[in-house]
Amino acid sequence: MMNQKKILRKNCLKERELSFKDKGDNCLEEKKFIKIISEINSVINILSIAIYFPTKSEISPLKLIKICKNLSIKVCLPIIFKNTNELIFSKFDDENCLTKNKYDIFEPIKIIQMFPEIIFVPMVGFDKNLNRLGYGKGYYDKAISKLRKLKKIFVIGLAYDNQMVDNIPIKNHDEKMDMILTDKMIYR
Predict the structure, then answer these.
(1) Cα–Cα distance measured from residue 45 to residue 149, given in angstroms and rounded to the nearest whole number
(2) Does a structural domain hold residue 188?
């Protein structure tokens, strides 16, 4: 299974790279983000949303910063907490307050932990059953699992449509997405 995932990961990253070169990372429509947020807002009260700073060829969720500001929703970013090596979410104020971690990903310098109602997650690949293929470290799976035990949250994977594969082999620690938004559509 590990080997299978490794091969899938390689292929999906190749596809992602192609879309990134072709469309850039800023191709998710603002109106789709707004549609998803208002839909979820009718079910739960959204106080904060977790996004990520895109790295390599990841599709960008950064349009959400402005959208959240307009809706008075706080934004937070994932941060790998050095003491426990687990992923937590910390309040994002502005780009001047960021530093790069060991994976070369921007994260807040000051830690103000938050428990977001919506988490937008980067993906290496996905399938139609809303299974996510990540980088294989399990950071997001563990963080999502913890939060889902605390309260009702919505987890939304972001990807290019060509990162979709027939089937992602899953284990019981793998967390499913509630929705996946691509440059072409919304999968539910």
Answers:
(1) 17
(2) no
